[in-house]
Design brief:
The complex is a heterodimer.
Chain A lengths: L11 E3 L3 H40 L5 H99 L1
Chain B lengths: L17 E6 L18 E15 L9 E14 L5 E7 L3 H10 L5 H4 L4 H20 L2 H15 L7 E3 L3
Antiparallel strand pairs in B: 1-2, 2-3, 3-4
Helix pairs in contact in B: 1-3
Classes of the chains: A mainly alpha, B alpha+beta.
């Protein structure tokens, strides 16, 4: 697992790219679609169940049919209940997955931001090092500049004597 | 009808519904046609269910697998006097029809095969509803497991390049 793996210096960790978040978003959309479809299916099943229980309860429903099919209808309704319970279970699972994905997306986003700040820090460090080198060069130049000046002027005087 | 055809990007999945109509009172004379097995006292209902099916599996990477959510619209009409049953099922492929055939074939369960009286017809209509409902539950668990695995792979370190920071 990389999203919750150790990060920081001395650790090997995954370098995230911007498309990682897009991929996660894609799977998030897919999962949300599943949630919606499962919800719709469960609703249709409940409506079907309600329809048949209302139908059998009606006064104008033929008695012969009512008495001969009562048991079957009860079994039918209990099976429908089972199926909708199954849908509810899958729905809970899909919702959990959607939550997990959205949390991970947040975490990946944070990692991306920390990667950017790490990079900036690295740049700053390099810049600092460069500044030190530049300062040394400046000081050296400053020390040698008068000496060079003097030696050049002496040499030019020597030339005149020659 | 376009909803049931091949689509690269299914947009109409968000529609789902259940409609019903019950007419058990004695109808006007014009509505009954006993010769056709219609008394005019009937109920009808119409709903749609969605199932998921694997479209394509890839051996290299599970991320490349494809699944498709299929829609099925079901209309059912039942005449309470004569037991005449009408089913109109719209679906993209023949699998539901094959299953229905299997259910109603004389070799299938004894109580389904008889359409002798109204009660038997009613019972077999219930069995058919159950068949469709069971079809709609079938592959969801596998699909969810696949989604979970893909997400796991998406954030796992195996497929990513490892970066060792040197400070």
């Amino acid at each position: 697992m990389a999203v919750d793996g150790l990060r920081g210096p001395d650790h090997a960790y995954r370098q995230y790219q911007w498309w990682d978040i897009q991929d996660l978003q894609h799977w998030h959309d897919k999962t949300n679609e599943v949630v919606m479809v499962l919800n719709a299916n469960a609703k249709v099943l409940r409506a079907l169940c309600r329809f048949y229980s209302n139908l059998i309860a009606r006064k104008d429903f033929p008695d012969t049919l009512k008495t001969s099919c009562e048991e079957h209808l009860a079994a039918f309704i209990s099976q429908l209940d089972e199926i909708s319970a199954d849908f509810d279970m899958q729905l809970a699972r899909a919702k959990l997955l959607a939550n997990i994905i959205s949390d991970r997306k947040q975490l990946v986003l944070q990692h991306l931001q920390s990667q950017v700040s790490d990079r900036t820090e690295q740049l700053n460090k390099n810049l600092e090092r460069e500044t030190v080198v530049m300062r040394i060069i400046t000081i050296l130049t400053l020390i040698y500049l008068p000496a060079t000046f003097v030696s050049v002027s002496r040499c030019s005087r020597c030339e005149r004597f020659l | 009808m376009m909803v049931f055809g091949a689509q690269s990007d299914a947009r109409d999945l968000r529609f789902s519904g259940f409609r019903e109509q019950i007419r058990l009172k004695l109808p006007f004379s014009g509505h009954s046609a006993p010769n056709l097995g219609r008394s005019g006292k009937h109920f009808q209902l119409c709903y749609n269910l969605k199932g998921v099916q694997p479209k394509q599996t890839s051996s290299e990477n599970i991320k490349l697998d494809e699944w498709s959510i299929r829609d099925a619209a079901i209309h059912h009409q039942f005449d309470v006097e004569f037991g005449t049953t009408l089913w109109i099922v719209t679906k993209g492929s023949m699998d539901l029809r094959d299953r229905y055939e299997e259910l109603t074939r004389p070799a299938a369960r004894s109580d389904n095969e008889s359409y002798s009286d109204t009660a038997a017809c009613f019972r077999s209509s219930l069995a058919t509803h159950l068949l469709y409902c069971q079809w709609s539950t079938e592959n969801w668990r596998r699909y969810l497991v696949w989604l979970e695995r893909v997400v796991e792979q998406e954030v796992s370190v195996t497929y990513a390049h490892i970066f060792l920071i040197q400070c």
